[in-house]
Amino acid sequence: MLVNNNFNKKTIAIAVTAALFNFASPTIAQEGDSANSEVEQIQVVGIRGALISAGSIKRDSSGVVDAITAEDIGKFPDTNLAESLQRIPGVSIDRSNNEGNQVTVRGFGPNFNMVTLNGRQMPRSSSLTSDGIPRSFNFRELSSDTVSAIQVTKTARADVDSGGMGATINIETARPFDYDGFKAFGSVKGIIDRSVETGDNITPEVSGVISNTFLDGKVGVLMALSHSERHSHTDRVGTEGWERNRGQNIDTGNIDNGTGSWWAPWTVDLDLMDTERTRQNAQFVLQFEPTDDLIATFDYTIQQFEQKSIMNRQGLWFDNPTGTPDANGTLVNPIEVTDELNFWAWQFLEQTEGDSFGINLEWQATDSLNFTLDFHDSTSKSNPDGINSEHRANLANGAFQLNDEGVMQGVATKLVDFTADFSGDIPSVSVDDSALPGGAYSVSNIIPDLFHTFGYEIDNTIQQARLAGNWVNNSNGPLIEVNFGIQNTEYQVDTRQFGTFAFVTTLNIDELGLEFEEVGDALSEFGDASSIYPFVPRYSANRFIELAQQQDLFFQVPPSLDGVTEETLAAFVSADFEFEIGEMPAYVNVGVRYEQTDVTAYSVLEKVQNLQYNHVEGIQQVFDGNPVAQTLKGDYNNILPNIDLKLDITDDLVGRFSYGKSITRSELDQLFPSTRIGQIRPGDQATASQGNPNLLPYESDNYDLSAEYYYGEASYASVGYFRKNVDNFIGEVTILSTLDDTNGNPLTDPSVNADPNLCPSDLVPDPNCYNRPDQPIINFELTIPTNLATAKVDGWEFNIQHVFGDSGFGAIANYTVVNSDAEYDVRKIDGNRALTGLSDSANLVGFYEKDDIMVRLAYNWRDKFLLQGGNEPTFTEEYGQLDANASYQINENFTVFIEGLNLTNATIRRHGRYAEQLIDAEQYGSRYNVGVRFKF
């Protein structure tokens, strides 16, 4: 068994009386059980059948529910679940490496949506620091081949897990009792990625499911396996961000932004990245029916995901730019004199492993009463080998003087001048390296600079036990049924964060194998990439670090340990009623959910003993070697009522009203009690961050009003208005604060009044360059998350789905408008409270399906949205992608197909406060899947 030994007695006791959502096992819905019948799966084949099934789920539900169902056994509409979800009104997605990975619903980003697998909360982890400590499920880690349906519940319900302020998304997978007797289905395909430059242009994806029932259908066994590989290439140009009021001799005469502030870029970068991704899924399910009244289900699910990337970057760094900002305050033509070009190398290794063991019992106690008992223990672990998952190294232009022993000493001489132009979609760069004999790209003019290692090891475990009951009223009266239950959820996250940053000036780069590659037609959709840089360096960051280790120049900062345990005890009850209002049938669901959550957060890390001035551009933290644990606790409780009203105005016209209260818990790393100091650069503002375990969850009052007109078997039109009033909005407060060393003395700046004959020094340690009491005290910008004000979000969803008779043609079109008073104000310098992910979105799908031929075109569009808030925001610009797929059914057992994604080679661009403040411009190219699908 894979059940954790630390599952406490309290949880075991509740597990005896615990169970899953009523909709988790739809195949045994009882007569008159409207809650289960809302999600009962209909065996359908083809696009039309899938639309009928999804439309029936939407029409019969008591709240606002949208669904996508499989078009045939083992045939989900898209190979990526997120890319299927984006077809639903109000749902948009985020992409990583041009694959859908997370979803935004009605303007609420991934952390505001609860994703469940067969009704169970699923953990997630990541080894990349850019992902933070994630709560939200990543859809790229799960194959779609065994998925039978996805339901998006946009309104709150008492019997649905809390956490989905935007929506609760339930993924339903196949069960052996879904089928009669023996079934086998699967697919074999080749993934053709046209972007590949290093690796295989065609990679395999294989999946299969075998299911059978025995003993007159009393026992069923199902096994599903999936293996997928993908190689890809990414071209990027961008910056390391923009900072306010940085530079010298800035001409502010043109600025007209109400504040007089200006923003300068840190860098101009050109990246070439090659990626290899492997995903493996497996699921084993055993079902048996020992009596006519009892069904038992045991399931075990495995997920493995690995992604390796090698990236090289040509860049430059604006340490002290000059120039004239435009009217917005953007320094569009920054100038830097006597500096250097930078030659970067990255290597990423992202590994996650997950498994889930579950038991589900459904017992029909009497004709009117049934119980569902469910328990699962699910784990996701990133970076299971416990190593640094990201390595970075840099080389730079420069020349050192040698001492009598031939050892480099002093500070590198910088002889390169450059300027950039940010007025277009991508910048152009002009470099003057005439002062360097042989030029900036001559290896004789390149020296080692620094290395950086970082990453996470995360162990995320969810143990959940649930008992749910359903009582059906078999007598006359408006009451149809009552649902009730209790649930205990223990959510535990333990993390180890790695990170080492050091300047290295004595490495022998002749052993790196440094070469320069011509840029070619990279970023052709944006313009001429050679106008940025003519070359990109090629060498290995891992090799750089190996050489540093061989020369005893490498060191590893001790990892910091952080963790959170959230234990939530919930109880719920709801009732369904049916009556008439003016001869119109009305259906009402009324419920309430109570939750008590206890939070324990801890941090274990060494304290800062000194600061060392180790480089002209860096100040190093020196730790005391004594890890200290800090633990803080918090708790909160919530009462979450809901009411859903459905009115059958006519046989074809349905009206709805819903009210419900929902919550979303804070991001996990916001709860860690530790204080962390950021990288310190001499002369720049020092920063630090601190967690807050007493954060309350976001709390929202949600209102929905909609009308749906079902005018054909697979045709309907709908319009809906929604409004969410959010309290306990979590934002960041920044204060100026001193931080103490291990002796209780405020940290001072070691770069001020340092001995010029001794400092800076990259020796570790070098007490001559430590901070001293006579140096100025550092005032850190300390950022702390806290519950701030309120926010309002409202919007409209328009949807039409039409099938043109028996012609085989059909179309789907939808459009979502989202507005909020929590939108980022770019003319406001600080104190912005803003929701990420708010944007309008639209879909247009056309299809033809007749006889053995199926063809579908799908276009998805998403408007500009805030990707990341804070003092300096990041916006993702509007994006549209065209996908297509076609298939031909050879016979009842075999179908051949081709799928095309991003056919128009759409590109992604992100910027800061204004469009000229480029953050990223990325180009991925199109890709195709060609294969055969089979079923027996």
From the N-terminal CA to the C-terminal CA, the straight-line distance is 33 Å
Say what the CATH topology is: Maltoporin, Chain A
CATH class type = Mainly Beta
Main β sheet profile: 27 strands, antiparallel
Oligomer: single chain
Assess the beta-strand content as a share of residues. over 45%
Instruction: Please give the number of β-strands.
Output: 49
- The Rg value, from CA coordinates, equals 29 Å
The structural domain count equals 1
Q: State the CATH superfamily name.
A: TonB-dependent receptor, beta-barrel domain
Total helices: the number is: 5
User: What's the mean pLDDT score?
Assistant: 86
Please tell me the CATH architecture by its name.
Beta Barrel
Which bin fits the share of residues in helices? Answer: under 10%
Poorly predicted spans = 1-44, 405-411
SSE class = mainly beta
Which descriptor suits the 3D outline? globular
